[in-house]
Amino acid sequence: MLALPKMLLATALAAAIFSLSNCSQSFNGSTDVTTVNASETSNTPAPVTAKTAYVETYKSAYKWSPDVVLLRLIPNAKSGFTFDSGKGGLWEATFASPSKHECRIFTYAIAAHSPDIYKGVMVGNAMAWGGITRDVMPISSAEFVVDSDAAYNVATADAATWLKKNPDKKISTFQLGNGYSFPAPVWYVVWGDKKSGYVAFVNATTGKVMKK
Question: Which of 93, 128, 163 is the last residue of a domain?
Fold first, then answer.
């Protein structure tokens, strides 16, 4: 848990942990997708948690390369998809293959959204990957215990006092990542921005707020 001015330090730390400069492009191209007619999208299913998206994207990632490791998992609120209370309609999982020295962004959507979002899993183009570093480490399924909705609840409880004073501030960042600074993967949750905001790190294995 951190509030300004310490948030700037936390943001800098998180930028190192969650930055994937050579794997941060948006997906381009698609495979393993289910096409849905525009008329079908009126009955959009409910948003899902990160673990649901992880399971679906991992299936496709494993087909690409059996040695894949998860590096980052984030919700995406673009194209009309919502994200609320730790659940989203569009998730992006970044997987890397040590044997191929490549990474890809696998996107899971609960419904189609014209012109470029399809229901199901979309697979981005392969990009060069320099390998595991101290700042960007793999997230094992054994360590990924706390789902996004639970992490949201923990982070919100931690930020309760600040949120009461800043009721207009919305979540600007919500993502799962791993780095040497933490004993386990963490959910990185930010309300507001660098000038006025609050950040919480939630341990993805224990569900406890990490004090930095």
Answer: 128
24 and 106 in a single domain? The answer is: yes
Distance CA 108, CA 90 (A): 6
**Is the N-terminal amide bond of 5 cis, ω within 30° of 0?**
yes
Over residues 5-64, the pLDDT tens digits come to 445 445 545 555 556 656 754 433 333 433 333 334 456 689 999 999 999 999 999 999
Of 128, 161, 182, the domain-final residue: 128
Phi, psi torsion values for 179, nearest 5 degrees: -155, 165
DSSP per residue, 101-135: TEEEEEEEESS-BTTTB-EEEEEPPPEE-----SS
Q: What is the DSSP letter of 61?
A: H
- Beta strand residue intervals within 141-196, DSSP E: 171-177, 186-192
CATH value at residue 173: 3.10.450
Whether 86 and 150 have beta carbons less than 8 Å apart is answered as yes
Single-letter residue type at 171 = I
List residues bridging with 78 in a β-sheet: none
Nearest to 190 by CA among 69, 99, 104, 75: 75
Helix (H) or strand (E) holding 9: helix 7-18
Residue 135: inside a domain, yes or no?
A: no
Token pair 């848990």 in the structure block, residue? 1
Same domain, 26 and 120: yes
Would residue 133 count as lying in a domain?
no
Rounded to two decimals, what is the model's pTM? 0.84
